[in-house]
Amino acid sequence: GAGAGVGLSVALSGDGGGDELTKACADDTSTCKEDGSVFIPQLPAGDPNDKTVPVLKLGESISFEELGPVIINTDGTTRRIDNWNQMTQQEREVTWKRISKRNAQRRAILEEKMREEKSDEHPSEVVEAETDKNLEANQ
């Protein structure tokens, strides 16, 4: 049924190539079956008719926009909005704009912190990088 564990049984007897499995069975008897095989848990097979799961084939690309915007936290970590799929189209548009502006501000602050940290470690490299940036901007 749904949520039932799916697994693979591996026999431990044979050509002697199963030493690692034999040791695993000896170390953790919860994975051993009565017949001497080891139970290896596996993910259940997906439903090929489930259209909610995106399918990506070799050479194709996928867009993650339907998952909502990536939020940049003040410490530089990222996350997404948990209830994005429950928001109305108008709420999504307003949220996307607000997060885009806030992300730009946070990114600028984080980049400035990185430049300051780098200048503390290697002051001449930062001066060269800033000079190169100014030259590019003036061209």
Radius of gyration: 27 Å
Q: Strand order within the widest sheet?
A: 1-2
How many helices in DSSP terms?
3
Largest sheet: 2 strands, antiparallel
Give the SSE string.
EHEEEHH
Q: Identify the overall geometry.
A: extended
- Percentage of residues in DSSP E strands: 5-15%
Low-confidence stretches: 1-10, 12-18
**Proportion of helical residues:** 40-55%
Number of strands: 4
Structural class: alpha+beta
* Mean pLDDT across all amino acids: 76
Query: Terminal Cα separation, in Å?
Result: 66 Å
Structural summary, described in words:
This protein is of the alpha+beta class. Helices cover 42% and strands 12% of the residues. It is extended.
Layout of strands and helices, then pairs:
Elements: E1 6-10, H1 19-27, E2 38-42, E3 70-72, E4 78-80, H2 89-121, H3 123-138
Antiparallel strand pairs: 1-2, 3-4
Question: Which descriptors would you attach to this protein?
Answer:
single chain; 139 residues; alpha+beta; two-stranded antiparallel sheet; 4 strands; 12% strand; extended; disordered N terminus
